[in-house]
Amino acid sequence: MSFAQVTCLVGTLYVFYLSLKLLKLVLEVVRTTLLGGTIDFKRLGEWAVVTGSTDGIGKEYAKQLAAKGLNIILMSRNKEKLEAVASEIESEYKVKTKIIQVDFSGGHEIYEPIGKELEGFEIGVLVNNVGASVPYPQHLHELPIENVWTQVNVNVMSTAMLTRLIIPSMVERNKGVVINVASGAGAFVVPLLGPYSGTKAFMDKFSESLHIEYASKGIITQSVLPLIVATKMSGVKRSGFFSPFPDSFVGSVLKKVGAARRCFGYWPHELQAFVMYLLPDWLFAKMTMKFNTKLRDKALKKKKEKKES
């Protein structure tokens, strides 16, 4: 067999491989769309806990779970916003709410009071959504130590500790759902967002472990890896094909609970991730580094101009 024939064969096999992966993606999207949305969330327990529930994705999770008949325990650091969201949910969906004001950047000492606040509630759904990032991409040595601490405590510790507090009652009742809202940044290497990417990767792997440990006990685990959603945190104000508003995104993800234990949530995001996975790691890292460096330089320039004005 000549070199040209070998090259042609390898190319054909690779195209066949890509075609199979694309077919798998299409079938997965169809499967989760058609077979999803069958979970009766209210059957799992009377209450749902949602962290970071005063804005964006978290607020939308709280609203859409309330629309399914669950009472909602809202957790965030801003009391006024918590009260406003609680009032909105009670008025619109005629369910009960409870607010727990908490700053998840704190240490282990914040969790004993949270545990006491949750005593006696039949919690069927936990949404670990609260998250912390940086205003723009930066090298690790440029980040204030406090910011690194905040990202680790908010993204990692809150997920692990709240799950630890709530999952025993789910095990006792043999039912429950744990949804961990990680990030697409946790599925890929994202230079200049190292702590954020790393903490979100923890959430994804943590979810995988929970699934293996607790699926036999009737507990459903879902790891959600959103790409760009039009929220205050992302800084994207307008919705687009690849950047949905939170209501569309959460509506899509909730339909996948029980059908997809790990997903990018929204089918255009699944398509984006498919393309990203095709790139060699070194090329994706190089492209991301270049893109994030431009964002960093632009932010620093704007910050300098603002300081000088």
Q: What features would you describe in this structure?
A:
The protein is of the alpha/beta class and 309 residues long. It has a single domain (22-308), classed as Rossmann fold (3-Layer(aba) Sandwich), CATH 3.40.50. 56% of the residues lie in helices and 12% in strands. The chain contains ten helices and seven strands. It has helices spanning 3-35, 41-44, 56-67, 79-93, 111-118, 145-173, 194-214, 246-256, 267-278, 281-308; strands spanning 47-51, 71-76, 97-101, 123-128, 176-181, 219-224, 262-263. The protein is globular.
In short:
With 309 residues, the protein is α/β, with parallel strands linked by helices. It contains ten helices and seven strands.
Mean pLDDT: 91
* End-to-end separation: 70 Å
Q: In the CATH hierarchy, what is the superfamily?
A: NAD(P)-binding Rossmann-like Domain
Radius of gyration: 21 Å
Globular, elongated, flat, extended or rod-shaped: what is the shape? globular
Specify the number of helices: 10
By DSSP, the count of extended strands is 7
SS-derived structural category: alpha/beta
Features:
309 residues, alpha/beta, Rossmann fold, seven-stranded parallel beta sheet, 10 helices, 12% strand, globular, NADP, Very-long-chain 3-oxoacyl- reductase, oxidoreductase
